[in-house]
């Protein structure tokens, strides 16, 4: 049903798509020929335990449960099912899911003093933690429970043997097909609800990504329909697109409406952005083309990229100044001229991303995320070429006819299409002999005859093209501010944000490849990786020994799409270095024992030291490009490895300019933009208060000091260095009145660290 993009297929711009007069077919609700669950209509329940009991009875004690990734899990219901199975060893529970979001658990006493009050405030002291996830992490999962995740919360399960053994390596985009034959008999999901004239309507909200595809794949595989349980969450944003499933008759079997059991939506805290992340974001922002398409993930690197794009739009002179200070003579250049730019956005960009996160909210508010796409090839081409605008004017009827938007002869489907996009008024109808317009005038149903186009022109001039979208996504995850924004969208802001099946976001649907490629023109797929090799391979999800940090997600599909579309690029962002047990280590290796993206799909890499364009380049050129964005401390070692592998000439010498790739030089280049406030620590605000922000800086300094080989020297100095009084901070850490020797030592350390970081940051 869907085309899996592969770099060896022809460029998609050359593939013949659907006839230009017809729009993209809209997604349909999954349908079974007969009701397999044994239930007639939707059963409405208000009791959590009653719902869990009915699920257990329906599955005869052998539950194979599918739950959405991330935000869409009904934690309390899953916990109720888990507890019942644990209490009855004869029952079995198998869970298929991903991204089991967990509230962080502080480690040391110092961490607890800082983190616990914040966590209780941010997530709620009664947030329902997923009990199966806690058991997995602690190595205490019962024998009659198994959990198969295809994506972990980053680093959460590195030390869990059972989680590592039961991990399933899947492309996010292919999950539905692979789960269809696993015997899933229950599907549970948080949903949004809204009253309409004909009754309640439902939205899959933040997670239409896999649910609908899974049900379709199961039906196609001949599997019985699973029991579909919708758990109403009043704060879940009611989102459009595939997510809006209407009355859901025939889709849901049980709707659980238990307000007392509602969980708080899991909101990610907004964190700080440092020099390295801002440098990467500034470099990456120059690769985005006005009028193009954007895909981004989540985290500080994405925040830095979004902030840089907003500076490019709103404070362009200062933005260029920051780039000049960062890049020097490398400012601009052929790569940016061909693929990106530095100027403010005029046309704006379109978002097509598996994840909808805070960055898209900020870009929409900034007037950048405004390019609209319409699921109609002829109309989209007319708009993209500039032949027409979103507001039609006199003379556009002839243009629309010449571009194939207006067909020569209209039938009922063709007229409905024109009404759907607002091209002609809804009052138009077909009558014997022609097309009747709202004022009663009738034109012959041959738009190439007589004055038909002139008559139609008088009725369309001044009309606005409608039905476009500015963003499509598969799932949502972000801050509390994002959820509020999504829940309060109105008009086109709401209708133009479509939550879709992940197969529509991450792949090009067979039969409409040309339309899908037109919509995603000049696409830039920004993702992060942990490690890259000098020959262009990337490791993004696992360590060399095979332990999984997170998962592949949709990264492969983005990279493959970038190679399959004529004008797209894949951009992998990474820090040039990291610290491992206090030791500085390069993230650019000669070889690495795990690969997520193979070297034959190499494209663009960005570190804090610049951009490396690897697509179509020789191995020698790739090595040189990666050396240019590598930290200077590790360049000589890579050169030796490359020469030994016959990838560099034995007489190769490192250019002097590359020796400036050091943290000290980077800080110097970034200093003006940082101290002026152009690049603030928290570009989009913080969930921490002012006292907590001061403490975060101090505690981060303490932690980094303890990780460095000679960090204890600084810690001892902090103990004996008199600190300036910060009563609010000490009170926040419950150290204002230390009682024990341990508390007195902690108080001295925190006070010294507060002084040190205050002096450093002013």
Structural description of this entry:
The chain is of the alpha/beta class and 762 residues long. It contains 28 helices and 28 strands. The chain starts with a strand and ends with a helix. The N terminus is likely disordered.
Kindly summarize this structure in a few lines.
The protein is α/β, with parallel strands linked by helices. It has 28 helices and 28 strands.
Spatial extent as radius of gyration:
28 Å
Shape: globular
Query: What distance separates the N and C termini?
Result: 59 Å
Main beta sheet, described? 9 strands, mixed
Text of the CATH class of the largest domain: Alpha Beta
Organism: Dokdonella immobilis
Domain Acetyl-CoA hydrolase/transferase C-terminal: 478-641
Protein name: Acetyl-CoA hydrolase/transferase C-terminal domain-containing protein
GO molecular function, one term: hydrolase activity
Write the layout of secondary structure elements.
Layout: E1 2-3, E2 43-45, H1 48-58, E3 62-66, H2 75-87, E4 92-97, H3 109-123, H4 131-138, E5 145-149, H5 161-166, H6 175-179, E6 186-196, E7 199-203, H7 211-220, E8 227-232, E9 240-241, E10 244-246, E11 254-256, H8 275-285, E12 293-295, H9 300-314, H10 316-327, H11 334-339, E13 350-356, H12 358-365, H13 377-384, H14 396-402, H15 412-420, E14 429-431, E15 434-436, E16 442-444, H16 452-460, E17 471-476, H17 480-487, H18 491-495, E18 497-499, H19 502-506, E19 508-509, H20 513-519, E20 523-528, E21 531-533, E22 538-539, H21 555-564, E23 569-573, E24 577-580, E25 583-586, E26 588-589, E27 604-607, E28 610-613, H22 619-628, H23 635-644, H24 663-675, H25 690-707, H26 711-720, H27 727-732, H28 741-761
Parallel strand pairs: 2-11, 3-4, 3-6, 4-5, 6-8, 8-11, 9-18, 12-13, 12-20, 13-17, 17-18, 20-23, 21-26, 23-27
Antiparallel strand pairs: 1-19, 6-7, 7-10, 14-15, 15-16, 21-22, 24-25, 27-28
Helix pairs in contact: 1-2, 8-9, 9-10, 9-12, 10-24, 14-16, 25-26, 25-28, 26-28
């Amino acid at each position: 049903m869907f085309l899996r993009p592969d770099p060896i297929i022809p460029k998609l711009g050359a593939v013949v798509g659907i006839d230009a007069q017809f729009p993209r077919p809209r997604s349909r609700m999954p349908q079974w020929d007969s009701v397999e669950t044994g239930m007639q209509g939707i059963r409405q329940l208000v009791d959590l335990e009653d719902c869990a009991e009915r699920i257990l009875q329906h599955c005869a004690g052998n539950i194979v449960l599918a739950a959405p990734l991330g935000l869409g899990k009904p934690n309390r219901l899953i916990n109720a099912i888990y507890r019942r199975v644990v209490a009855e060893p004869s029952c079995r529970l198998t869970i298929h899911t991903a991204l089991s979001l967990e509230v962080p658990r502080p480690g040391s006493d110092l961490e607890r003093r800082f983190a616990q009050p914040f966590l209780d405030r941010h997530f709620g002291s009664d947030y329902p933690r997923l009990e199966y996830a806690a058991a997995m992490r602690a190595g205490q999962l019962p024998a009659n429970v198994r959990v198969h995740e295809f994506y972990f919360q980053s680093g959460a399960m590195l030390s869990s043997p059972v989680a590592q053994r039961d991990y399933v390596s899947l492309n996010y985009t292919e999950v539905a097909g692979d789960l269809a034959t696993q015997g899933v008999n229950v599907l549970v999901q948080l949903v949004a609800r809204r009253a309409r004239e004909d009754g309640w309507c439902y939205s899959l909200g933040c997670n239409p990504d896999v649910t609908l595809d899974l049900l379709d794949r199961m039906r196609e595989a001949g599997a019985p329909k699973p029991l579909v349980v919708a758990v109403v969450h009043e704060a879940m944003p009611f989102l459009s697109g595939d997510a809006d499933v209407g009355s859901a008759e025939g889709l849901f079997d049980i709707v659980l409406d238990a307000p007392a059991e509602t969980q708080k939506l899991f909101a990610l805290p907004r964190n700080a952005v440092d020099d390295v992340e801002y440098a990467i974001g500034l470099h990456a922002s120059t690769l985005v083309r006005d009028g193009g398409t954007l895909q981004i993930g989540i985290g500080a690197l994405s925040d830095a990229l979004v902030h840089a794009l907003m500076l490019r739009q709103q404070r362009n002179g200062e933005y260029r100044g920051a780039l000049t200070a960062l890049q020097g003579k490398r400012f601009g250049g052929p790569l940016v001229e061909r693929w990106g730019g530095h100027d403010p956005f005029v046309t704006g960009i379109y978002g097509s991303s598996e994840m909808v996160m805070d960055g898209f909210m900020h870009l929409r508010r900034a007037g950048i995320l405004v390019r609209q796409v319409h699921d109609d090839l002829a109309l989209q081409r007319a708009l993209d070429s500039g032949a027409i605008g979103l507001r039609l004017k006199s003379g556009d009827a002839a243009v629309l006819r010449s571009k194939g938007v207006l067909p020569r002869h209209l039938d009922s489907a063709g007229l409905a299409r024109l009404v759907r996009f607002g091209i002609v008024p809804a009052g138009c109808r077909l009558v014997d002999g022609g097309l009747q317009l709202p004022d009663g005038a009738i034109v012959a149903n041959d738009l190439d005859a007589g004055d038909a186009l002139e008559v139609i022109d008088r009725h369309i001039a001044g009309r606005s093209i409608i039905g476009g979208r500015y963003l499509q996504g598969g799932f949502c995850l972000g801050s509390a501010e994002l959820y509020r924004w999504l829940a309060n969208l109105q008009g086109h802001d709401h209708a133009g944000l479509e939550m879709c099946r992940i197969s529509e976001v991450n792949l090009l649907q067979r039969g409409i490849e040309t339309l899908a490629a037109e919509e995603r023109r000049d696409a830039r797929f920004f993702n992060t990786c942990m490690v890259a090799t000098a020959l262009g391979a990337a490791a993004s999800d696992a360590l060399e020994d095979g332990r999984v940090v997170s998962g592949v997600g949709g990264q492969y599909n983005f990279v493959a799409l970038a190679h399959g579309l004529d004008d797209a690029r894949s951009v992998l962002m990474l820090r040039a270095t990291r610290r491992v047990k206090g030791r500085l280590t390069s993230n650019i290796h000669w070889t690495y024992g795990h690969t997520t993206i193979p070297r034959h799909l190499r494209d663009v890499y960005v570190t804090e030291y610049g951009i490396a364009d690897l697509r179509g380049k020789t191995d020698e050129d790739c090595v040189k490009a990666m050396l240019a964005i590598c930290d200077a401390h590790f360049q000589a070692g890579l050169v030796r490895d490359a020469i030994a592998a016959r990838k560099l000439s034995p007489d190769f010498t490192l250019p002097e300019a590359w020796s400036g790739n050091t943290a000290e030089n980077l800080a110097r280049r970034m200093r003006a933009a940082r101290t002026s406030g152009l690049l603030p620590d928290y570009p989009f605000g913080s969930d921490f208060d002012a006292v907590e922000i001061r403490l975060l800086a101090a505690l981060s300094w303490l932690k980094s000091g303890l990780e460095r080989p000679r960090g204890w020297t600084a810690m001892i100095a902090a103990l004996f260095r008199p600190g300036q009084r910060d009563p609010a901070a000490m009170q926040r850490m419950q150290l204002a009145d230390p009682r024990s020797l341990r508390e007195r030592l902690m108080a001295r350390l925190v006070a010294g660290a507060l002084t040190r970081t205050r002096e450093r940051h002013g």
